[in-house]
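Progress report, Aim 2. The chain analyzed during this reporting quarter is listed below.
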Amino acid sequence: MKNKIYNHILDEEDIKRPIVKNSVKAFLVGGLICLFGEFLIFLFTNVFKIEKTTAQILMSMCIVTITCILTGIGIFDKIGEFSGTGTIIPITGFANSLTSSALESKSEGIITGILTNMFKLAGAIIVTAIVSSFIVATVIYLIRA
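Predicted structure tokens for the chain:
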């Protein structure tokens, strides 16, 4: 009987999340970020006549730089609050996490604060990327051998 009453109280107090609305916002914002990246590639390849692989590298650099600047002035966090997971596209999410860590620990100094704390967060991501790359490269090498 106590469990039924407890579960009833929990059901009444449960926060109803607008899952569809949140998903649409995340999809739209993430899509706009990707669309902007594709626009940059188009701009670099067709207007500036840069090779596509170089244009892709430049696009990544631009997206990271813009994300860092927007994080630094507080705009990217507002975009993230609006869209939820829409801004966690790997390149923007990674740039945001590094910049946020650096900003939070800048009072501790450059070496002991910014550099140390910035890579505490990013360390797991970097290690995962390196190990995954090694495994995939090994598998590809063995398949082709």
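The chain has a mean pLDDT of 88. The chain has six helices and no strands. These observations will guide the mutagenesis work planned for the next reporting period.
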